[in-house]
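User: Can you recover a sequence for this backbone? Please restate the input before giving your answer.

Assistant: Of course. Working from this structure:
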């Protein structure tokens, strides 16, 4: 068992390669319930690949993942992916919400329809129930008056907030964000970060890949520094920013301080 009693996410010895490029090189990480964890590090260091492995958008080559009681394990990239493994992947994906750099909303559906779709298709939720939940979630992210707007009628920040509502509609145990503000104009960044901060206040477990160091410093419970496919350092924000232990961490953060 790799899942500690106080961990909703536990990862051990995670490896992933693409065409001979060893992107993740034995990542170990535990994340407690209700914790907001920010992953930082230089571009290409494996942060986004790590997130995509957590919800099995990328199938990891080797290691163990445990999320909210669902356990996945592979001994090597040659290990067969049987029906039991795929069943666990489907179960895991219903427990993990994902918000991407690009908003990925269906352009032909309104904000309300975008948020309703997954619960109806994946979970078989009745339309009336799905609509009521979608309206509540769009209200939560500040889009209560935009439910009938199509994505082209929304700003980038509004589209990303709708994408967060869509992920929340599946009632996930964990929310993952891959550079959720990097495609936004600077003036729209805060409106998305405020939604994430509100979810943190409500106790949602969140893992965020971001270059927004102010958000990392002010809101994160824990910061993880990645480099060359490995976890170099894990610390609370005040410790990470004031006295990082590893020279690689210090060199990276010097650019932001």
């Amino acid at each position: 068992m790799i899942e500690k009693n106080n961990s909703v996410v536990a990862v051990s010895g995670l490896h992933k390669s693409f065409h001979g490029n060893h992107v993740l090189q034995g990542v170990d990480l535990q994340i407690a319930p209700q914790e907001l964890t920010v992953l930082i590090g230089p571009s290409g260091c494996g942060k986004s690949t790590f997130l995509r492995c957590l919800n099995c958008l990328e199938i990891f080559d080797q290691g163990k993942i445990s999320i909210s009681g669902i356990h996945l394990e592979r001994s090597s990239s040659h290990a067969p992916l049987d029906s039991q493994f795929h069943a666990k992947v489907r179960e895991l994906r219903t427990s993990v919400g994902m918000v991407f750099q690009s908003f990925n909303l269906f352009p032909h559906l309104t904000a309300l329809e975008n948020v309703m779709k997954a619960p109806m298709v994946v979970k078989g939720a009745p339309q009336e129930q799905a609509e009521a939940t979608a309206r509540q979630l769009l209200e939560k992210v500040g889009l209560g008056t935009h439910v009938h707007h199509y994505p082209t009628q929304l700003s980038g920040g509004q589209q990303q907030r709708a994408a967060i509502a869509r992920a929340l509609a599946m009632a996930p145990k964990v929310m993952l964000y891959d550079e959720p503000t990097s495609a936004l104009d600077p003036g729209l960044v805060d409106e998305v970060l405020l939604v994430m901060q509100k979810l943190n206040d409500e106790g949602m477990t969140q893992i965020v890949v971001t270059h927004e160091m102010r958000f990392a410093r002010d809101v994160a419970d824990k910061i993880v520094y990645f480099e060359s496919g490995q976890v170099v350092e894990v610390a609370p924000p005040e410790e990470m920013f004031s006295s990082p232990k590893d020279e690689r961490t210090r060199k990276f953060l010097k650019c932001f301080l």
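That completes the design. The CA atoms of residues 27 and 49 lie 11 Å apart.
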